[in-house]
Records
---
Amino acid sequence: MTGLRLFCFCVVPLLLLGTAEEVENPRRDRSHIESTLKLKEEKPADDYSAILQRLRKIYHSSIKPLEQSYKYNELRQHEITDGEITSKPMVLFLGPWSVGKSTMINYLLGLDDTPYQLYTGAEPTTSEFTVIMHGPKLKTIEGIVMAADSARSFSPLEKFGQNFLEKLIGIEVPHKLLERVTFVDTPGIIENRKQQERGYPFNDVCQWFIDRADLIFVVFDPTKLDVGLELEMLFRQLKGRESQIRIILNKADSLATQELMRVYGALFWSLAPLINVTEPPRVYVSSFWPLEYQADTHQDLFSKEEISLLEDLNQVIENRLENKIAFIRQHAIRVRIHALLVDRYLQTYKDKMTFFSDGELVFKDIVEDPDKFYIFKSILAKTNVSKFDLPNREAYKDFFGVNPINSFKLLAQQCSYMGGCFLEKIERAITHELPDLLGSIGLGKKSSVLSCDKTGCGETPKNRYKKH
Ligand SMILES: Nc1nc2c(ncn2[C@@H]2O[C@H](COP(=O)(O)OP(=O)(O)OP(=O)(O)O)[C@@H](O)[C@H]2O)c(=O)[nH]1
Ligand SMILES: [Mg+2]
């Protein structure tokens, strides 16, 4: 009888209130995450994969031949694999150490207190690039295995060396959200430590992820705002990806409102010179973790900000095909410019060569000072290429150092009776095939966004900011 009474007095109240830990650290309701990201909705089996297959076909038939013929990969070290074409949108988390990146991923996926939550802590914790993706059951995958599997979009990472692959890890989690996006957690930036000390090219690896991410969350902790050289370097790398950047002022409930406003101002003051766009990036001010916001803070604002961020994420999921097509088209534009440039170098070389000249000296002269021969200018003038898309001149010195000019053919000679000309094919892909593919997914944006009529196939400054 006494035992039963004890059960009633001690256990029942605890059962009603939850565990002791929850009483101490009350958790916030998570239902808005599911509803905003529409996780319960079964997406209709749309023609998603059919469109990706068509995209793959356009890439292989119209873009890749030119890319290979002019060794584009050796200039930019960028090749597109089939895995990359069919991959899910990627959300990248960047920022200083201990700002709450891993905690935020745990929170969004509801991984807290499960065996597969990401390791978090007040000291620098994440030391690996961690790719969190969908899988039928929980599984970790070593970096070397991920890189060896060409069906995955991470195989190009192999080029960063074995040291790096040891710092790459994949986690497969059976989560609804991961059926639509892949998250990438990164080691935090440490200001007083040079990134080179990590034993692998940290900045190059970051750049690889930055170039491919559909959404880039740069997270800050308002209690230790530290904008130093390493962060400056990161923002330099983010150039050109401004429309994917979202700044997060995390842990916002740990400061009083007035202090928070001061930090907000200070953050913008420090970041303004680093972000080179007229429109400021979207900043989300909130506390992205499962615990209840601290009392006497702007809880209402924080929960609204969180919903805005989720809507933003949802938008990326819904636009994934559109973004993928735009990404391939942007790549095609760069490949085309590269091919035009190599063609121009080659043409100039042929023009300057006489029976008595020394080929090596003639070409050295051209490579050392391409402006003397109007190489870049002529590309701009003749083909309506945007000057912002022209690659770095210096890169061509290295490029031709490894690839002798004689190993290339002129564009005019790259035609076949059956297949047509490489240049025409890539131009058709940029002006018609890719915009038509976009039109076929019913977005109706084909002419305005992707037509070359107005831009002459140059890259237009895109602004895909979404304001909420
Ligand atoms: N008050 C508060 N603390 C947080 C919040 N998010 C994370 N933290 C705490 O901040 C510390 C660092 O969190 P992590 O998630 O490990 O940070 P990180 O950015 O992944 O750090 P690195 O992996 O070292 O780069 C942990 O002690 C967390 O409990 C938040 O929203 N509010
Ligand atoms: Mg971490």
---
Amino acid sequence: MALLSIHPLPQVSNFCVKAPRVFVNNSTSKRAENLKKPYSTKCRTMHDQVTHSMPPEKIEIFNSLENWASENVLVYLKPVEKCWQPQDFLPDPNSDGFYEQIKEMQGRAKEVPDDYFVVLVGHMITEEALPTYQTMLNTFDGVRDETGTSPTSWATWTRAWTAEENRHGDLLNKYLYLSGRVDMRAVEKTIQYLIGSGMDPKGENNPYLGFIYTSFQERATFVSHGNAARLAKQQGDLKLAQICGLIAADEKRHENAYSKIVQKLFEIDPDTTMLAFADMMRKKISMPAHLMYDGRDSNLFDHFAAIAARLGVYSARDYADVMEHLVNYWEVEKLTGLSPEGRKAQEFVCGLPRRIKIIEEKAQDRAKQAPSLPLSWVYDREVSL
Ligand SMILES: [Fe+2]
Ligand SMILES: [Fe+2]
């Protein structure tokens, strides 16, 4: 993610069997031109875009896992009737006490500082760009929803996962609207820009890379919503803590599902999975909302990420912890029978969390007094980075 100050290590793609490349121009005049076209991601994606890097014969692996996925992945979905809905945690517009409840909610929100609201807005905007994530899942070869109602386990998961995720943005959006603390028009503009820009996870239509990305991301969102819940509790807003905690619990369930898929891939195709894990780590996991823009601040994501790190919601240290967790969960250190490249990838991945932590500690020692800047989401009030 953008917070990491490590330099990307040399990139070796081990998947480029059939990899048409799109060259992205990075000249100064192009960049200036692209700033006028904020939906364009060209000014911020400086790498060759690789597509369809999984050898076509590997699609058979995902077809053969159809029943396995039905029994081992779909079980992580919750039946709709047992799911919470945003309305369970919001004032009921049909009740007599509606306005009283909003007043009480706004009273609690008054005690919460602006920087915390900026983080919550960042979380909400990330959740609201859900159309992009469903699109992204449907770029993966061998597991995409081919029709929109495909009955395969992979497609069933993607649709139901999307439907579960949709509640997160809805709840946070309505909460933030009713809190009266944020400039909803500026926030809504940011969402529109973000969905228009898309995302660049470097998944190459490759489900090996893609499911490693989603495992990482679900864990990262579990950590950040969980920390947001902890801070809300410290600030005395127990209802907000409950909202963030519920979302974190969903993310954890999703993390379990995606991690199970990758665990299975390690079991049946360890070398390819090992190389994919190393490849994703070399490229670094970009956050889903890394292209966010509010029409004004072209470093908006970095500013949001800096505030989230300063508050202890999500930092480079968490990034390293997520990686370490996955290395342990997939028992990467214990893998045997790998090719020489696979062993190199294994060594690289196993040593990476420790290296990131060392670099991060040094960066923290060098950290200067944080500057502050006005942010559109909180009516241009100054917030320290
Ligand atoms: Fe979510
Ligand atoms: Fe999620």
